[in-house]
Each structure stands twice: as C-alpha cells, then as structure tokens.
Amino acid sequence: MSTKYSIWPVILIPYNLPPWLYMKQTSFILSTLIPRPKMPGNDIDIYLQPLIDELKQLWDGVETYDAKEGNTFKMCAALIWTISDFPGLGNLSGWNTHSGLACPTCNLDAKPHRLKDSQKWCFMGHQCFLNQGHKYRLDRNRFDGQVEGRDPPKKLSGTDVLRQQSNVHVSFGKSSSVTSKKRRNGQDVDEDDSHWKKKSVFFYLSGKSKDNVKARRDLQCMGIRPELWPEEGGKYPSAIFAMSNSQRDVFLKTLQNVVFPDGYSSNVARCVDLRQCKLSGLKSHDCHILMEQLLPILVKNALPIPVSNVIANLSSFFRELCRKAINPMQLAELQNHVVQILCQMEMIFPPSFFTVMVHLTVHLVDEVTLGGPVHYRWMYPIERYLGRLKQYVRNRAQLEGSIAEGYLSEEILTFCSRYLDNIETRINRPWRVDDEPIDVRHNSGESMFPAIGKALGAVSHFELSPMEKHQAHRHVLVNCDAMVPFLE
Questions:
Q1: What is the largest CA-CA distance in the chain?
Q2: N or C: which end of the chain has fewer CB within 10 A?
Q3: Where are the domains of the chain?
Q4: Tens of pLDDT along 283-324?
C-alpha cells in the first residue's frame, strides 16, 4: 500500500479456457499472499514451497469428478511459464541477473563490456545476430571499434539447462545461495563466480539522462566517436539525440493535445508538466501506448531524421510484436528487423544506454515463437488486478486479511452469478461503453451498414459539439435506410 510496505500476491492463471477468458480477472486464482514489510527477495522460495508441492502433485495427476459425465478422471496440470519482472526472474529462477552474464537466453555465450567510468555492464555487439558478411559486421567506427566475427549465441535446450544445474545445491532462506562445485587441486571448492546463484537483486531507477560526462568518457576509453569526447573541463558537445528546450516543448505540447478513444488509455495529458518540462505519473499501460503509437509522432518534429526513424522503427516492431494475431511465417523477418534496429541504435546512443533490459529486446521474437501471442503473458492484466486487490483494503492495520477476505467474498459472488439468469451481474452486465444498437430492424441483412454502435446522449436543437455531430452522423449511417439512394 506504500513504499514502506510490500505485499506479494502469487496468482495462478488457468490456460484451459477459451482465449477470451485467459486474462480476465474472474479467471485468476489468488493462491498465495506473501506478507512482508519489504520485498521477500530470496525468501520467496520458502513461501512458494507449498505451492510447488501442490503443482508437483498435479503433474502426477489427481482424481477429479466430472459432473457432466458422472464419473471421475485423472486430471494432470503443468506449469507453462511464470510472469514477473526481470529482478523477479532472478529471485525465482536463481539466475544471476545483475552480472555481466545477466541475459539468461544468451547464457554463457554473452560478451558484455564493462564500462569503466559508468561502472555498469554494457550489452552491445548485436551485429553477431546478423548474417555473416553483413556490412555492419565490418564497420568499426560506428560500433565498438572491432570487427564482429562471432556467431549468434547458442540456443540452449531444456536438457542443456538441466546439465548446468546438475551440480547446483540450493539452501532456502535469507542466507540462501546456489553454488556449484568444481574440482581444484583435487578438492571440491565453491565457484564464487557461478551464474546460478540466489542473491538479492536491487535496481535503482533514475530519471537522469544516460548521456552524461561519464558516458562520454566511456566513448573515449573505447576509442570511438571522437566528436563526442568530453573536453578537459568536463564539457562535452551536444549529441544528435539530445533535445533542446524548444524541442522538448514541441514534444510535450504534442503529447498534451493527444486525444484517445474512450477506454483506450488514461488521460496522458495530466502527466505532462510544461513548466518543468517533464513527464510523471505514467502507468505501465500508458508507456505501452506511448511506445507503440505515440513516439513516432512525438519525435518527428523534435529530433533529427536519423534518430526519429530509428525510434519509429522500434515502435513498429513492438506494434507488430503485440498484435493479437501473428503470422508464424513472418517471425524470421521480424527478428531480422529488430536486430537491424538495435544495430542502428548502437550507432546513435552511447554504450551506457544498452543495459540488459535493452538487450533483451532481441530475444522477444523467440519468446513469441515458443509461447504464442504476447497478450497471454504480459503484465497489464496482472497490474490491473493488483489495483483491484488494493481496493479490498478496509483496515490498513491488517492489509493481508482485508485482501484475503475481499477476494473470498468476490469469488463466492462470482461463482453464484454464473448461475443467475435474467439478473444483471458482473458476468453479463453491459460494458461501460455499450456499442450494441438499440434498434436492429434495419440491420436484418438488407442494409449494407453493419449493426455496430449506437447514438449516445440527447440531441439538442442548439449547436452540437463535434463529438455529438460525429455520433449523430454515425447513427444516421447505421440505422437509416434513407441513405441508400445517395449511394447510387
């Protein structure tokens, strides 16, 4: 409920449902509530142990009664995947997500670079994902100063991962650590630099720009882009991707004037502060809309063409990736597209920009290949559900009890409402934006206009607003046969 207290709910999502019910809140199962004043970190293993035991039991199968057939059958279940943020992945899997080999997909084939001045790991060199002989592989000046001759990282199978974990020993609790044993001088010793560990993972998210004097010194140490190197006094020339004050005003004013359809997004204009020239209070779904739809428009007149084109291409990639229907035959082309984008970004942005979160973009297409469309696995329904759980709290001294009691009460009401006919419930009530037509007499197949939408509000004899004019025009097009002669 605040930054000083953290509750971690563990939600199960059954996938043996119709696709339109996968990510509905009425289908979620709140299995565990982890009460902690702070994040559980590696202690999450202890809280999840009973759930893991039940999942193992479901894997072997349990006797279940079939009400329709009137007999019992053996029901089996499997855990397909987990949905969490990247630090949570480190706590759940044990992979060390804060080291130079933070990418679990690249695994040991990753070739990170340690930035001396920025004191962080840099994940560049995406030319290795290109075909051999590509011109980007031979370009030294605009990349990291080296010719790229590596092959793409090897894709590990489940057997390979199990082989890596064959000598891993896990101890649960706050002092838990996963260490691998290796032979040294005839004795088993701990390998301190093992990449399968249980360590606390902390990320500090700063609103400061990554283009600073340290980032410019990193360029100087790498011997690339001498036109951006800092001077002796610490001053450095402006980069092509840096916005001036006037360009920021154009960016923010354009965003402030954007209007969305009802229910498509929150009011992003409230997050714009023109006086301080900044954005604040954006929800995760707002950032999703900003990345996919708005950035190409916002940066078109605020940044030079090379930078705006790269950002537009990145937005188009996420837009194609997040479609509800994806053609598997186009995934190879989409993978090549994102590699080209990351290589173009390496030509523009400093090395400190390429953290592991930026690098993980190159593996998103592989996840789609394995798991299908992304809207069955993304965090937005989960985060909306977390907001729903917060609404259950009535006693701030007993947060977990309030959430558990509210969840059980709503589960009972939801179960009962599925068996109530001719009564409006949350299962069958109309949507907040009800587009079903009131009068469908003219939509029995004789009209060329489909039966979608209906007029909203009362029509006044005074001047109509633009929205009312649009609604009235839509109503005429959908419901009036008198429009047919004008179409001849």
A1: 95
A2: C
A3: 1-80, 434-488
A4: 888 888 999 999 999 998 889 999 999 999 999 999 999 998
